[in-house]
Design brief:
This protein has 734 residues and is mainly alpha-helical. It has 28 helices and no strands. The chain is globular, with a radius of gyration of 28 Å.
């Protein structure tokens, strides 16, 4: 059942609200002290501008160490940028050159991903705010020092808060990953509802998978840098985070391995209750994980206990009934599929129960201590702001280079139009006032424009809707009250909510940002209705310019999606090779079968390579699927190979899932199985040999007791590999 308060609970239990509160307090505090109490408007504006710009980098994601480096880079580069712009502000022609170069260079920081884009936006915001600060030449250095002081203040404030709340930040990050896993499980449950369209279910699953991949990486970066250690404080809390992380990762592997032939399953059991039992099991496990995430974020014990024993027993009963009817002999593959699903649901239940038990409090011991070593550091994200990636993208074949050119063109258009209006209407006070607020148009453009056309258009619509709603709500608020005792707390609340929502709910975030900016202008402008109208008009102009410039130096997903598809195929092939290499080595060493213990191989080089390969296939597949989803939102004239790409995405998903499920089956063998190895060699050849070459099909795998657990996985892998090869050949992939 849908809970109306779910989004609210998730907001207050997630990391974005915590970071928004600390951003809001860090920026509002100097404004209250310098402007409200001491009436130092220009001094307070410059100081707050330095703090506000740096606060934009202080977002969830990454690690504390990485965030400090990003804040330090933004502090130095942003203030140099502000000083240079303020100095060039007295020389119009030079100013255009300075602005163009800075917009281009800082837009190129998008090569480092979202975090790099935040650093670039921080520096550009400092540039824009220095444009609005009208000072004489001899005052430039003085006000630049004030802005620098504001940035240094927020830098010290941020690292102090991070140190004081370091464990709380890690809990929130891990809770966010648990929540994303619950969303993914809920999306997987939709496949067992026969009334749902399979293609629709798959399209709804992709964004959940991408979000889960990102949140798991953020959790991995934080937890693996703070492993349990007897010498550290809060040892029990560290053990709790480690244990939840280990079980959450195992749950992810189990859920990703649950890919099956849902179409066949629906055709055979569409009128049977077993499908409902499978669906209900996943839904109940998803709800339990959601409660675990809330309890983890609030640092309270998990009291609620949810059981799926009834659903699992019902599935067991249905399978036993099918077996009595002769399915095991007449339809062995379908029977094996049901057994496989049951085992995975049991495993998922066990992992969820361990997570819930861990959160019930008490003295706990670290899980899987053999894996808490330096080898785990290979799974962390390593992101550095270096010059070489920027130089490598300085060509028209780079999406980021084209994006930087588009943004620079859009900002130049704003500057040129503003200069022309001022030149012809310099005596018009109203026009001059409008031109002074051109930075709002520029900021909106920087917020809207993204490297991809689809995302730019999506953000444009959301920004426009959020701004219009925010303007209307501001008028409504000011018509109800003008009391400072109401408006000032409202501004703080709006700012916090805007920062908390702008990342995942851009429309709502834009609405609250508009509310707090316009409500703040009420104390600065005697005619607030005019200011509100200006903001709405500025947003419309910015959206129009952004949309128009999206067609300049365009970059469509068709330019890169084939490369992403090929890279995902290569990652699948590498994952299969690593899986076979590790399992073969273990079995050859006589450590397979009942003697196998995963913790004994934590330091094994082949085991580490397998884990890295598994992480790589998750990341490359998510990037490929995300690119395909964006292409569907682009103009139809730029759609290519839609049917082939859709088949590739589904087949690659099946392939990676079945490879993931092979490990336990292969490790259960006492010795290697040559006929089975021939099947895997054939599958690997399908993925690696030139696509124009015909591959000889091996002999059919005999349905012996030893081979029976592999019959369905091998068949699905072969079918998926053949589809991948066929679609890759038709698309002309190398």
């Amino acid at each position: 059942m849908h809970n109306p308060s779910e989004h609210f609970i998730r907001l207050i239990s997630g990391p974005h609200l915590f970071f928004a509160i600390r951003q809001g307090l860090g920026v509002i505090l100097p404004i209250i002290i310098l402007i409200a109490l001491f009436d130092l408007y220009r001094f307070g504006f410059a100081f707050s501008a330095g703090a506000l710009s740096l606060a934009l980098i202080d977002q969830p994601g990454g690690t504390k160490r990485t965030r400090i480096k990003e804040l330090l880079f933004g502090l130095i580069a942003g203030n140099l940028c502000a000083f240079l712009t303020a100095w060039a502000n007295h020389y119009p022609l030079l100013l255009w050159i300075v602005i163009s170069c800075q917009v281009f260079m800082f837009s190129m920081l998008a090569v480092f991903g979202k975090r790099g884009g935040l650093v670039g936006f921080c520096c550009l915001l400092m540039m824009l705010l220095s444009l609005n600060l009208k000072v004489e030449t001899h005052e430039i250095f003085y006000y630049s020092l004030i802005t620098l002081s504001g940035s240094i203040y927020y830098f010290l404030y941020s690292i102090s808060i991070s140190h004081l709340f370091r464990l709380y930040e890690e809990r929130l990050t891990l809770a966010s990953a648990v929540y994303a896993t619950a969303d993914y499980m809920k999306a997987r449950a939709n496949f067992y509802e026969v009334s749902n369209d399979l293609d629709t279910c798959f399209r709804q699953l992709l964004p959940q998978m991408i979000a889960m991949t990102d949140s798991h990486q953020a959790a991995r970066d934080n937890v693996l840098r703070n492993l349990p250690d007897d010498k550290k404080k809060n040892q029990q809390q560290r053990i709790l985070l480690w244990n939840v992380f280990v079980e959450m990762t195992a749950l992810l592997d189990t859920m990703v391995a649950t890919q099956t032939d849902y179409e066949l399953l629906r055709q055979r059991f569409k009128n049977d209750d077993i499908m409902l039992f499978m669906r209900d099991t996943l839904l109940k496990l998803s709800r339990t994980l959601q409660r675990c995430a809330i309890k983890m974020a609030s640092n309270t014990d998990m009291q609620y206990r949810n059981s799926v024993k009834a659903e699992l027993r019902a599935i067991e009963y249905e399978i036993e009934r099918y077996k009595m009817a002769g399915m095991a002999k007449e339809e062995p593959e379908i029977y094996a599929l049901l057994i496989q699903i049951l085992r995975r649901l049991r495993n998922a239940t066990r992992y969820v129960d361990i997570i819930a038990d861990t959160l019930r409090g008490g003295d706990i011991k670290p899980i899987d201590t053999m894996r808490r070593d330096q080898s785990l550091l290979q799974f962390r994200t390593h992101q550095y702001l270096r010059l070489q990636p920027i130089l490598d993208n300085m060509h028209m074949g780079s999406a980021i280079f084209r994006y930087a050119l588009r943004v620079t063109l859009a900002i130049l258009i704003v500057q040129v139009i503003t200069a022309i209006i001022i030149f012809f209407y310099h005596d018009n006070a109203h026009i001059e006032q409008l031109s002074e607020h051109s930075y709002w148009i520029t900021i909106t453009i920087l917020l809207i424009m993204r490297p991809g056309f689809a995302l730019t258009r999506q953000r444009m619509v959301m920004r426009l809707q959020g701004t219009v709603i925010g303007c209307l709500l501001t008028l409504l608020l000011l018509s109800m009250t003008t009391s400072p005792y109401v408006l000032i707390p409202s501004i703080i609340l709006f700012m916090i909510l805007g920062q908390a929502l702008v990342v995942n709910h851009f429309r709502m975030g834009s609405m609250f940002i508009t509310l707090y900016v316009l409500t703040g202008f009420y104390f600065l402008s005697p005619n607030i209705s005019t200011v509100i109208g200006e903001r709405a008009l500025d947003t419309i102009i910015a959206c129009f310019i952004s949309y128009a410039c999206s067609f300049a130096f365009p970059w469509w997903e068709e330019n890169q999606i084939k490369r992403l598809a090929l890279r995902t195929i290569e990652s699948s092939r590498n994952y299969l090779r690593k899986e076979l290499s590790f399992t073969t080595a273990v079995v050859n060493e006589g450590l397979g079968g009942e003697q196998f213990e995963a913790s004994n191989f934590a330091h094994h080089p082949l085991y580490i390579e397998l884990q890295i390969a598994r992480q790589d296939i998750h990341n490359t597949y998510a990037e490929f699927a995300d690119s395909y989803a964006r292409m569907l939102n682009e103009p139809k004239s730029h759609h290519i190979n839609i049917a082939s790409l859709n088949n590739l995405i589904m087949s690659l998903n099946t392939m990676s899932s079945q490879i993931n499920s092979l490990g336990p089956l292969l490790l259960a063998l006492d010795k290697n199985n040559p006929p089975l190895q021939q099947q895997f060699i054939y599958i690997e050849t399908l993925l690696s040999a030139p696509y124009a070459i015909d591959i000889a099909t091996p002999d059919y795998l005999e349905n012996t007791p030893e081979n029976q657990p592999f019959m369905l996985p091998v068949k699905q892998m072969q079918k998926a590999a053949q589809t991948i090869r066929q679609e890759a050949y038709q698309m002309g992939l190398a």
